[in-house]
């Protein structure tokens, strides 16, 4: 179905967010006549989410933009167990204090992209530890466990693939889908949630929650998933050669965040503009149609718009200015990543790895021998080269044409 009457599904469809809907006609009719509270769950395993989660955050933004209520569910309780979906090994256990700190860090991005408050369409953030933490385990199994069959649970990809690879799955992780299903049931009862959204890998978990709500309460609930988000070359969204592309400034400088978007594949520009910006679809079509070197203008617009949404106006402006000074003027922009090498200096390979330009000293050595490294414009090929800087001075280090940093003491 693509002839939607509700602003919500029409917008999600036009911008490429929809992969599967459990009952498209029913959800469309509901969203056309009333405010629909909808939620997405996020685990708190790190102090920041990365851009692999940005499409989900933008879906909550679209929900609010079309007059509905976003519920941000932080998995303070389920983080203690770990979602086995897409994982080959068990997740490390985190302390309560670490989980709480992570949630505080993650909230800062949501506050930029959503309007929080007490109004009917204002966003709220909730933590499933608040209700899961108070459940007696035996009581939980008695009330909820009877609605799940082991046969069905074993059929889910998240479980089946782990078993096929002979990777162990703990009984604790096996319970994750029961707790996630209970979340949907709880939010529907306590906050009127009618819709759960998520990535395509969450389809089974979402359907579980819908069925639980129907069996326990007779609730009519809905699920919607997004397509698996990969780049044009097939890579999973959210990773770069230097590691995860984090949403928070503390985990990744704004210049590096901006550069990720500026350097996307030409084929991804239109799709990313639709998913990750608020630009008008007509303007996106114009930018997507640019060819040759002009597509770089569209990439700069993409980088500016996403950075502005996630990091703020000042971060976007400063990152673009730094790029212009670095590339066009041959200078060293103020927003470049920096590294202090100390009085004793550092080997060039260690410098590259410390900056995240290379993933290992071995990769750094390869880049050096390929002639890709320059210090103040001069090529450096010797992996044993010691980078020393006079006190109070600085040098510009470059790897290829796109990665630059300031080395200081």
Automatic annotation (TrEMBL):
User: What EC numbers are recorded for this enzyme?
Assistant: 6.1.1.1
One Pfam family from the record: tRNA-synt_1b
Key words of the record: Aminoacyl-tRNA synthetase, ATP-binding, Cytoplasm, Ligase, Nucleotide-binding, Protein biosynthesis, RNA-binding
Record-level Gene Ontology MF annotations: tyrosine-tRNA ligase activity
Q: Where is this motif: 'KMSKS' region?
A: 236-240
Binding sites annotated in the UniProt record for L-tyrosine:
39, 176, 180
Motif 'HIGH' region mapped to chain: 44-53
- Subcellular location(s) per record: Cytoplasm
User: Which leading EC class covers this enzyme?
Assistant: ligase
| Physiological role | Catalyzes the attachment of tyrosine to tRNA(Tyr) in a two-step reaction: tyrosine is first activated by ATP to form Tyr-AMP and then transferred to the acceptor end of tRNA(Tyr).
Q: Which PANTHER family match?
A: TYROSINE--TRNA LIGASE, MITOCHONDRIAL (PTHR11766:SF0), TYROSYL-TRNA SYNTHETASE (PTHR11766)
Describe the family membership recorded for this protein in Swiss-Prot or TrEMBL.
Answer: Belongs to the class-I aminoacyl-tRNA synthetase family. TyrS type 1 subfamily.
Assembly and binders:
Homodimer.
UniProt protein name: Tyrosine--tRNA ligase
- Which species does the entry assign this protein to? Qipengyuania citrea
